[in-house]
Amino acid sequence: MATTPAPAESKSPPPQARSVLRDIAFLRLWAGTTASGLATWALPFVLGLAVLQRELGAAGLGLVLAARTAGFLAAVAVGGVLADRHSRRAVVLWSALAAAAAAPLLAAGLGRSLLLMTVAAALAGAGQGACRPAFQALTAEVVDAGRRQQANAATTLAVRASTLAGPALTALLAAFTDVATLLLGIGLLWLVAALLPGRGATAGAPDDASRPRRASLRAEFVDGIREARRHPWFLAGLGALTAVIALGYSATSVALPLISRDRYATEWVLAAAMTAYTVGALGGALVTARLRPRSQGWAAFAGLAAYGFAPLSLMFPVHPAVVIGAYAVAGIGIELFNVPWFTATQREVAPDKLARVSSLDFLVSYGLAPVGLALIAPAIDAFGVTQVLGACAAACFLVPAAAALAPTARHFGRPPAPRDTH
User: Fold this and answer.
1) Please, what's the b/e burial string for 172-206 (b: 16 or more CB within 10 A of its CB; e: otherwise)?
2) pTM of this prediction?
3) Residue 368 phi, psi dihedral angles, 5° rounding
4) Angle of helix 114-142 versus helix 354-367 axis, rounded to 10
5) What is the DSSP track for 204-215?
6) What does the alpha-carbon distance between residue 120 and residue 116 come to, in Å, rounded to a whole number?
C-alpha cells in the first residue's frame, strides 16, 4: 500500500534566546550583586569623609581598611568551599548579613573606639570575601550558558555605573546627613544583597545524604586548586591578571596623584583620569555584551595588556589629554578581559568546584595587590618614577602576551564548535 511521503521539514533559524534582562531570576541576582558592589566601593569613600570631618585619623583609616582587606582574604577561600559544599544562595545570604551587621558596629565605633571599628571592618571584609565566589557560582545556576556573557556584562555595567555616580551621590548625601548615617546606609545595601537574590536552579554540591564522609575545608580547597590546574588557560590568565593588578594598577595608584600634583599642578588630572577609566570600563562592558570574537582568549588578553597604556602615559610630560585617553583605553581593555574571563570560568570549570576556583581567582589577584602597593613607593624612591613606570608598563604588555601562548588560551578552553553550513 502506497503511502504519502511526509513533507520535508523546512529549516528555520532557531528562536532567539530571551534577553537576560527580561529574566526575573537574573534581575534579582543582578540587583543583589550590584548592591554588594556599591556597598563594597562606598565603605572606603565614606570612611574618607570621616577623615575629612576629623572623626577618624589617617592612621586609623589605614588600620580599618587593612582590617577589611585581611577579612576579605581570610574569608574568600572559605566562602568558595562553603558555596560548593552547601547552597550558594545560603552562602550569599549569611555572608551579606555578616557585612550588614558590621555597618552599625562601624557607626557605633566612629569617633569612640578604633578597636571596635577595626573588628567591624574585618567582619565587613569577611562578608564581602565570602560573597564574591558564591555570587559568581550562583550566576552560572541562574543563567543558561548562552546568555552568561550578557549577564556578566550587565553586572559589570551596573557596578561601573555605580562607581561613576557614587561619589557625587555620596557627597550630596553627606551635605544633609552625617557619616554614621551613611555607614548605616551601607548596611542597608548589604541587606538588599542578602535578601533579594533567589535560589539557583541547581545545588552547588551533592546533597549531604549522598556524601559518605565530608572532607575538611582545606582538603576541599586543595581539590579546587586541582580543578584550576586542569585548565592551562585559567592559570595563565590568573598570572597575567595578578601581574597587571600588582604592578600596573599599583604603580598608577601611587604615581598618578604624585604626577597630577607635581607635573600638572592640579588635582583635575587625577579626577579626570579616574573618571575616564570608569567611563572606558562602561564602554567595554557594553561592547562585551554582544562581542563574540573567534579567538576569545586572545582578544581578552589583548584587552588586559591595554592597561599598560596607563603607566606608559605617566612616564613622559605629555598633554593631560593623552593621560586621560590612556586611562579610557585601559578601562575598555580591562572589561574586554573581565567579562569573557568570568564567562569562561563559569563554562569550563566543573560546576561543583566553580565557587572554589572563583575564590582562588579573587584570593590571588586581590591578595597580591597590597604587596604591590606597599613596594611601589619604595621602588620609586630608589629607582625613580620613570624607571618604575616603564618596568610596570612593560610587564602589563608582556605578561598577558606570554599568557596568550599557553595551551587552550586562544579560546579560554575548548574552541567553539564549527557552525553547520548546510
Assistant:
1) eebeeeebbebbebbbebbbbbbebbeebeebbbe
2) 0.81
3) -90, -10
4) 140
5) SS--GGG-SSPP
6) 6
Q: What tens digit of pLDDT does each residue of 248-284 get? A: 888 888 888 888 888 888 878 888 888 899 899 999 9
Do 32 and 196 meet the contact criterion of CB atoms below 8 Å apart? yes
E strands in 182-332: none
State how far Cα 343 lies from the chain centre: 13
Identify each DSSP E strand in 32-119 by its residue range: none
Question: Where does the pLDDT of residue 5 fall: very low under 50, low under 70, confident under 90, or very high at 90 and above?
Answer: very low
Decide: 65 and 44 in contact? Cβ < 8 Å. yes
280 closest CA partner among 214, 226, 213, 335: 335
In the 8-state DSSP scheme, what is residue 353?
G
Question: Does the pLDDT of residue 178 top 90, yes or no?
Answer: no
Q: Which of 177, 173, 179 is nearest to 54 (CA)?
A: 179
- Would you state the cell numbers that stand for residue 213, as one nine-digit string? 564522609
Q: Reduce the DSSP state of residue 404 to 3 states and report it.
A: coil
> How large is the C-alpha radius of gyration of the chain?
23
